[in-house]
Structure formats: C-alpha cells, structure tokens
Amino acid sequence: RPMGRSPLSIVGSPEYFWEQGRCDTLEDLHRHTLIGFTAPETLNLWHVGEGVQIRPALRASSGEAVRQLCLRGNGLAYLSRFMVAEDLRQGRLVEVLSEQLIRPNPRELVNAVYYRNTTLSARIQVFLDFFGARWQSL
After folding, report:
1. What residues are paired with 45 via a beta bridge?
2. Rounded CA gap, 81 and 102, in Å?
3. pTM for this structure?
4. End-to-end alpha-carbon separation of the chain, Å?
5. How far is 42 from 57, CA to CA, in rounded Å?
6. Which run of H or of E encompasses 8?
7. What is the pLDDT of residues 73-92, one digit of tens each?
8. Hey, which residues does 76 pair with through a beta bridge?
9. I need a labelling partner for 105 at 20 to 30 A (CA). Which of 2, 5, 78, 130 fits?
10. The Cα angle at residue 24 between residues 21 and 30, in degrees rounded to 5
11. Per-residue pLDDT tens over the stretch 53-67
C-alpha cells in the first residue's frame, strides 16, 4: 500500500564539515568521504545533478548503520528524510546540495508491505491509516 514519499537528503555532521570543509557543488562531492550501502548497488546511485553512481569509502548493510556512521563524522550519506528529520532539526546533521537533487526519484516512494490474502486485523488497519495520514508531514 503506498504510504507517501520521503525525500532523500545528502547529509553530514557539523563536525565532519568543520574538519573536511563544506560541500557546495557537485565537484566538491568527489573530494568528500561518501558512505553507502553494501547491496544492492542501486542504493549507491545518488539522484543529484544528472545522477551519480558513487564509490563509497564506507559501506553498511542498513540505513541505520549508514546514519550512525554519518552522525559520528565519518562522511556524507544519502538518506531518507524520515530517518534524518529529527537529526536535521536538532543540528546533529546538515543537509547539502539540496537544490541540485533530482525530485522526485524512485527511492522516495514508501510502501507498507503485508499479506493481502488474509484478513487485515483492525489494529494493523488503524496503524496504516494513522501512519499514512502523518507521513506527508515529514
């Protein structure tokens, strides 16, 4: 069931930028340490400019691990807004190159996945309705 979209952001910690300098252009991106995913490789296609297939210096198998590496000042990451919204609000992460991101892109789509061949319990239906209504506010 489609729930909504979660824009992706290129983010880094203030400490990382203090040590390595800002990333204000696509050319700057290539001199920074990039954090990506072990698999699938399509997760390392950043939808910025014409699209950049990155070669991550650090890789992790989960978005949360990538986020933690980024929070600890290890480099820049390309993560969904739902994962980093609070970090951005609290100043733990800073977004860069937001004007150059391609919007929308296929990775922004968020779906709830569940078995349709069984009766959906009331609590699951309530959760999906609640979550779906609030998804757009992220």
Report:
1. 53
2. 15
3. 0.83
4. 18
5. 16
6. strand 8-12
7. 999 999 999 899 999 999 99
8. 34
9. 130
10. 75
11. 999 999 999 999 999
